[in-house]
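SAMPLE LOG
Freezer: B-3
Tube label: C17
Construct: single chain, 186 aa
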Amino acid sequence: MSLAVDPVVQLGVRVLLTLLFLGTAVHKLRDLRTTAAITSRYLQSFGLSGSPALAAAVTAGLIGAELAAAGLCAVYPSGTAAAGLVAGLLGLYGLGMAVSIARGIAPEDCGCSWAGTTGQPAGWALVLRNLVLIAVALLLAAPEAARPLEFADYAGAFSLGVFAIAIYATVDVLIANHGLLREGTS
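STRUCTURE (predicted):
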């Protein structure tokens, strides 16, 4: 027995993930030097060389993968491919944060906050956020319920995706502010 996902939900997830990965790519492109420095810290947490050349190459590859993920999420019917690339990127980023946190060398800036926050340190809340996003992305790989879509369905899916990205941005700011509030009470 397989559970089919309503196409409105899948379209809403597509909107969310398209906006998310376009936002992350643009965020990284705005300041490539800082992004490469953050990438270098993550590479070091895996025991790899944090050389500027390697960090720049990995950064370019990640930005390209994020743009590809946004494109796959926007293009129908790429559900399995989009889910795989998105889950892979989010898993890689979550693993990078988890390893750097566990080793005590987490970057002061996770490199993942584009919703109006800067300098947000990698933390367990961000790893959890990525796990939730992976679960959401996997909805794209599930079979789609067969039913005709009307204009209202498309409008509802778009609204769902925009609402979800607003929730994502709110959670991102709350996570960032939680860390700032903890520092202020110490």
